[in-house]
Amino acid sequence: MASSIIGGLIESGHPAHHISAADPFPDSLERLRAVAPVAVFSDNANAVEGADIVILAVKPQVMAEAAGSIAAAVQKNGSLVISIAAGITIASMQSRLGPDAAIVRCMPNTPALVGCGASGLFANDKTSEKQREFAQLVLSAVGITCWVDSEPQLDAITALSGSGPAYFFLLTEAIVDAGVALGLNRDTANLLATQTALGAARMALESDVDLVELRRRVTSPGGTTERAIQSFEEDDLREVVAKAMRAAADRAVEMSTEMG
Q1: Which pTM was predicted?
Q2: What is the predicted pLDDT for the residue at 257?
Q3: Which range marks the domain in which residue 125 is found?
Q4: Would residue 9 count as lying in a domain?
């Protein structure tokens, strides 16, 4: 994710020499340098010295150590800290960075790797309007951004767009398997299914009508699509999706508790 954000910033015109990155593993730093000629460090505190914005793109399990290593520099610089670690609350971050730290929690998703991400953002009350703009600018380099009004809403974002790519992959898998069962070879079924998913998503994003109307326009009365939609509705597809997303949101809450 860090490489994707750096790549997106460079592509959008941000100078590489204004970006520093830290990682304890030399191989990871070399991969970052392959993305862009940014400054690299093995020590977190050295990397954030003088930084206006610090992005903590680390696993939740090492967040306490990472945040502690930069706390003094963040307090000295008045840096904005953007966390993309799932389950780590702002209160937990403040306990390590200091009570006055400006913090934005972000829940991105994996399509950020191809510049098509969707990120939910929440800022604490120490974050200025200018810092909110900076956070949005950074995450917009890899996709769209949406602010939420309360931190618990990030759990819903996790269930919707954070985990969402896997739902679409699973549905596409099922469509491919059904196509094969109907007589297509797997390569053809896979190509047609993934292109159909891409086309449908673009239509939904670019159309001036809502999803219900788009579906209605494809569903001719008495036709093949109507028969398939009726089958989905009879099997209560909507409740299946709702139940799965409730499970994901509940797990996000559990993770926050487990990680303190």
Answers
A1: 0.88
A2: 82
A3: 2-152
A4: yes
